[in-house]
Amino acid sequence: MHIKQIWSYIPEHIVPIRELNEVLGLNNAQTKVLEKIHGLKQVRQDKDGDLVSLLGRVLTQVVNNPEIAPNSIKYIIYCHTIQENFPFPMKVLQALKRAYGLQHAIAFSLTQQNCASGLIALNVAETLLPSLEADDHILILTGEKTFSPVVQLIPNTTVMGEASAAVLVGNKGNGSRVVGLTSVTLGQFCNVLTGTPQILREFQEIYTPRLCEAIVAAVEQAGLTLQDIRYIVPHNVNLSSWKKVAIRLSYPLERIYTSNVQEIGHCFCSDPYINLQAILEQKLLQPEEYYLLVTVGLGVTFSVAVMQYAGIGGNGLDHRIDGFFEQAQVGVNGPA
Predict the structure, then answer these.
(1) 20: which DSSP letter?
(2) Per residue of the chain (336 residues), what is the pLDDT tens digit?
(3) Would you say 110 and 96 are in contact if contact means Cβ atoms under 8 Å apart?
(4) 160 near 151, Cβ under 8 Å?
(5) Are 179 and 14 in contact, with CB atoms under 8 Å apart?
(6) Coil, strand, or helix at residue 269?
(7) CA-to-CA distance for 62 and 22, rounded, in angstroms?
């Protein structure tokens, strides 16, 4: 199984963390913790758009790519953290399929692993691909709106931003080969944000060691060592947590890609794929090198994908749009 291409949309509109004080109910001390300790400077918002337009910005890139036949996309897996991220009776996925000529594709959502759902989708894709023809594809789609302070802030940890990504998965081709997938779920922390203070303290205590254990287990199951891993491509929860991981693993912090933490904040399930795209744009990987996609979903799920970069072909793996695009007119109501 290969990740063949990635497209993303990062809105141009920048909102400094400090400007969110009032809407998120933060005082100056809490803001300083987010900025100085966690390394969060700003987030991006698709200011005048809704969920349909946010996802449509990457789907436009997919269907307009001359190298991709839309009818080769047999499944669309929409990964999101917020379980109910659009109101009844809106049918966002069905509307997007109609608008972008993807009516033939089977579309469904993954959300149970929260922000780890984007990597869990690789597990699901792996089970579906054997039933498809050699040239068929699965599209993993991510992106969410921060429509409420409740979903925009994880207290004392991170601030959520808006962005979207589309990931084309297939049986063969250039891009990156999936070497191994490891996920660990600790269900006792399912209510970590709404449970007792003791549960929160226990979660904070186990977060770094259990994440490191998942990383080491994934690497060892792939028959590799950490020295074989050129980059860790993480989620953007904050800088401080990745510093702790680097220390515990004795892994160079400069090889954990954290540049986007301060630029776009934590964009739900999209982070690892957006960061991978950035690494490829900067040509930081050479063919045959190994890297990890790593993310954590509250609940709590630690997910690690061991990848081997195979190089790019045609127009390459990386396609990004910042800002305006010609958006299709999408209706979101009515029958599927």
Answers:
(1) G
(2) 999 999 999 999 999 999 999 999 999 999 999 999 999 999 999 999 999 999 999 999 999 999 999 999 999 999 999 998 888 888 999 999 999 999 999 999 999 999 999 999 999 999 999 999 999 999 999 999 999 999 999 999 999 999 999 999 999 778 999 999 999 999 999 998 888 999 999 999 999 999 999 999 999 999 999 999 999 999 999 999 999 999 999 999 999 999 999 999 999 999 999 999 999 999 999 999 999 999 999 999 999 999 999 976 433 444 455 543 334 445 554 433
(3) no
(4) yes
(5) no
(6) helix
(7) 38
| pTM of the shown model | 0.93
The encoded tokens of residue 218 equal: 């994934």
Residue where the block lists tokens 């920048």 = 14
First vs last C-alpha separation in the chain: 31
Which position has the token pair 């990386």?
318
| Pairwise CA distance, residues 142 & 54, whole Å | 10
Whole-number Å distance between alpha carbons of 269 and 64: 24
Tell me the two tokens of residue 44: 């991006």
- How would you classify the pairing of strands 229-233 and 290-297? parallel
CB-CB contact of 63 with 100 (8 Å): yes
Tokens 């993303």, residue located: 8
- In the numeric block, which tokens belong to residue 254? 């400069």
- Residue 186 to residue 99: CA distance in whole angstroms: 39
Peptide bond into 130 cis (omega under 30): no
Chain centroid offset of residue 103 CA? 25
